[in-house]
Each structure stands twice: as structure tokens, then as C-alpha cells.
Amino acid sequence: MKRWLTLCLLLTLLGPAAARAELPRVGICAYSSRDTFIGSLLGQIRERSQGTLDFQIVYAQNDQNRQNDQVLQMIADGVDILAVNPVDRVSAVYLIALARQHNLPLILFNREPLREDLAAYDNAYYVGIDPRQQGELQGKLAADYFRAHPEQDLNGDGIIQYVLLRGEPGHQDAELRSLFSVRALTQEGLRVQKLAEETAYWEKGLGQERMAMLLNVYGHRVELVIANNDDMALGAIDALKAAGYFAGAQTIPVIGVDATAPAMEAIAQGALYGTVENDAAQQAQAVVELAALLAAGNAPTADNFPFPMTDRVVYIPSRPVTQ
Ligand code: BGC
Predict the structure, then answer these.
(1) Is the Cβ atom of 318 under 6 angstroms away from ligand 1?
(2) In terms of domains, do 210 and 137 share one?
(3) Which residue's CA is minimally distant from atom 10 of ligand 1?
(4) What residues make up the domain containing 205?
(5) Has this prediction a pTM greater than 0.90?
């Protein structure tokens, strides 16, 4: 409080430039600069924190050792708060210990630490989504599609033959979306058969490659494509287009997660059947508001923090999107 009063006084006496210099400093360490979803999340954080927080962003390019060094450097630079998107969620245990050792508030986002690791430091938080809910919504979207389009059971065997494109192994969103999407399909009363699953590491290019390969092997036996994210779904659509799909009557339901800008475009064009929103704007807002509270030395409560939080974990709700 005292700090804020001093800040306001400074603002009046010296003008806005001086006040800006006093903004709390947040060190953001992102796992990669090449991820579409993370790019949009960071863009939202930047936008929503203007004038209240001073963010500095570094990228680890998928290398946990490099990220550990970057976090150490941020600490040496004297940041007030750390906001880390870990390369490897299991390695977050080290980052949590570091933050604790330096008595710095830590916000982890997008890659969820193990609960027991987060529990070890009461000034560590996680902001993300519930991948179980997102998987379920994907499964329900697929079930809706097949109820409305029974003819998409191409071989008429009463069973949906699907392929699954998975994100990075060990990433909670890849593991749980995969599990819960298929589980929801069967809970909706549909019979399913997995033809194959391929790991495409969240990437559009790999999604395209893997899908082209799957089409070579399974051809028209594929009746549904489930992808752990939109980039891989869009890659799959490129491969499907190259194989003649989406030109005339020949179509296939492809379902992703994220609702990125290019995915929304593909939905509008009728190529991507549906996606589940991974609300970057609200996740960014939660990170920014949490950082502001922690910088002022306040713990988030139901009164000062408008997002659902349990055991210092914030899950932003998701919703399905189709045309
Ligand atoms: C998103 C992916 C993204 C990944 C990065 C997931 O929640 O759906 O698009 O690549 O996070 O960690």
C-alpha cells in the first residue's frame, strides 16, 4: 500500500514517465517462440498489462537447461515476479524450489506442474485450462457430428474409425485431451475404433506429414480426425485437401483445440468442423491480475481475484466452437 502511495505521489510530481519506471517487473520465460497458441497468449498478456506491469519475455526454444539458466538470469536481474511456461512440466519442481529460495512469487502457466510440486511453495500458482473438460467437449462435438451425419460412417459398420494426432508426450493437455475425447464419444453412445495415433508435437507441419502418411495406409477407412490442437488439425486438413477432400462432396470431420485465428478461418470456410476454445484472453487476464496482486504483496482471494481458483490452480473454462 505504502509503495502504491509513493508511486501515486511520484506520478503527480514527475509525470507518467517516472511512474512507468516504477512498475513491478515480471520475468516471463516461455518454452518456445514458435508455438501459435503461446504466441497469442503472450500477445494478450502484453496488451492487458500495459501501464500496470513491466514484462520482459525470453524463450527457451524447447530446452529445459536453457530455461533454467534464463530463470536464474531473471532472478539475478532483480525481477519482482516470475511467470514461467515450463519446457517440461515435471522439471517445474526445480523452478519452484528456486523461486522459493529467493522468496519470489511464481506463476506457472500452460504446462501444469505436478500438484505435489506446486504444494511445496505457497507463493506458486498455476494458470491454465482443464484438459479433461476440453477432451470431453471434443468428444461431444464428434458425437453431434455423427448423429447429424450418419452417412459419415463410410463403411456402414456402425463403428467410427478414427485417427488421433497427439501433442507432445508427457504434456498434460496431450495426454488428457486424448483420453477424455474418446471416452466422451463412447459415453455419448457411439462405437469407435482407433485406426492409429501419431505424435505431431503440436506442430502444423508434422500434423500434415503424419496425416499424409495415415491416408496412405488407411485411405478412406478414416472417418474422423481428432487432434490435440488446432495447428495439427490444420496440418491434417492440408494433407486431406492434397488427397482430394473438401473439394466436392468428399468431406471428413476434423476436430481441434485452441480456437486460434487460423482455425476460426478454417471453420468459417467449412474445412475444420470444430474446435474447443483454449481461452488465451482469459488466461492472459488471469496471469496479469495475479501478477499485479502478488507484486503488491496481496494473496488472491475470492474478493480481489475474479477467476475460479483451487489449491492455487486457476482453470479457465472452455467452450466448443463450430460454424
Ligand atoms: C495448446 C497447444 C500448445 C501447447 C503448448 C496447449 O494447451 O493447445 O496449441 O502448443 O499448449 O504447451
Answers:
(1) no
(2) yes
(3) 202
(4) 131-276
(5) yes
